[in-house]
Amino acid sequence: MKAASKKVALITGANKGIGFEVARQLGRNCCTVLVGARNPALGREAAAKLHDQGADARFLDLDVTRRETVEAAAQFIEKDFGKLDILVNNAGAVDPGDGPPSVANLAAVERVFQINFFGALSVAQVMLPLVRKSPAGRIVNVSSGLGSLAFNSDPNYIKSSYNWIGYCASKAAMNMLTVQLAYELRNTPIKVNSSAPGYTATDMNHNRGTQKVEQGAAETVGLSLLPADGPSGGFFSSAGPKPW
Ligand code: NAP
Between 15 and which of 46, 68, 129, 213 could a Cys-Cys bridge form, CB atoms 3.0 to 4.6 Å apart? Predict the structure, then answer.
């Protein structure tokens, strides 16, 4: 086991979109970035691209729904770095079968939950012993404004038309993970927060998002690099705290 001098950051679903941009920005901030991806060819390509831009980036084969890949990733991190300073639970998905509660396809809702909630919980559980070995561990759950109960229950909420029970409920569940894990870790230096990227142009929304990935990644990067007096157990967008 080697002691890493640089901060070590694992970003799940980092082969493209917001995850790739978070990895790029953390790589620029002197972190070693572990590019988690379920497709090895795409993951290697992304890590090589970051490497070419000057980042210390390595591909990690990691499908958040396959516990054996998560455990193998943890063993690799333990062996090569001995700790994990930053965990970004970014991997996420939507499903065409998702929809309003009355008609959403149940299998589609379950698929979305497997990735967005159970995947994040599984990665957090497996990586936590390594995050505990960091002097200042940070866990960021990439959530969404669509997971906010307050916003979803506001008739004036601009996005209330996004009536997808699977996606919205999975992000609300992820927010519960943030709150409960932050409470469990309240007497440690580890901080756990949820980020809301905002509507960002990526494959997830066929690039219809109104922000660029640089903006969509910014809050997640900020929460990954929080100082010791930063918050824990919160939900933040780049505009500030978000209502649960
Ligand atoms: P994206 O471009 O579609 O990227 C999603 C990433 O997650 C891809 O790398 C994808 O890998 C990966 N992924 C999906 N299932 C996975 C699994 N089982 N294991 C490992 N990786 C998996 O979408 P994005 O917009 O960047 O989304 C990133 C995060 O931001 C998501 O959690 C999303 O819910 C959240 N978010 C996005 C927006 C937005 O407007 N874009 C707004 C709020 C929140 P593959 O390439 O293999 O599919």
Answer: 46
Domains detected in the chain: 3-241 (3.40.50.720)
CA distances, 47 to each of 15, 16, 106, 185 (Å): 8, 10, 35, 31
Rounded-to-integer distance, Cα 116 and Cα 208, Å: 21
Distance set, CA 236 to CA 33, 66, 89, 148, 218 (Å):
23, 29, 15, 11, 11
Q: How far is the CA of 204 from the centre of ligand 1 (A)?
A: 7
| Residue 167: active-site member | yes
- pLDDT tens-digit series, residues 14-37: 999 999 999 999 999 889 999 999
Alpha-carbon distance 219 to 211, whole Å?
A: 13
Ligand 1 pocket test, pick from 11, 12, 38, 219 with the greatest ligand atom count within 8 Å of Cβ, gives 38
Mind listing the pLDDT tens digit for each residue in 199-228? 999 999 999 999 999 999 999 999 999 999
Residue nearest to atom 21 of ligand 1 (CA): 13
For 117, the token pair is 């909630």
The alpha carbon of residue 160 and the mean position of all alpha carbons in its chain are separated, in whole angstroms, by 23
Of residues 218, 224, 143, the one with CA closest to residue 190: 224
Q: How many whole angstroms separate alpha carbon 137 and alpha carbon 240?
A: 22
| Backbone dihedral angles phi then psi of residue 32, each to the nearest 5 degrees | -80, 125
Atom of ligand 1 nearest to the CA of 114: 18
Mean pLDDT score, 71-83:
98
| Helix, strand, coil shares, percent, the chain, to 5 | 45, 15, 40
